[in-house]
Amino acid sequence: MSHQPMRGMFPVLVTPFDEQDRIDEDSLRSVVEYNIDAGVHGVVIAFATEIMKLTEAERLQVAQVVVDQTRGRVPVVVNTGAVSTVATVQYSQQTEDLGVTAVMCTPPAADVPVDEKKAHFKALSDAVSVPIFVQEAGTSLGGALLREIAEESERVRYAKVENAPPAQKVYEAIQHGGDLVTVFGGASGTYLIEELRRGSQGTMPWPSHPHAFVQVWDLWQAGDETAAREVWEREIAPILRVGGLVHKEILYRKGIIKSARWRSPQPALLDDVGQRELDEVCERLEIG
Question: How many CB atoms are closer than 10 A to CB 78?
Answer without folding.
Answer: 30
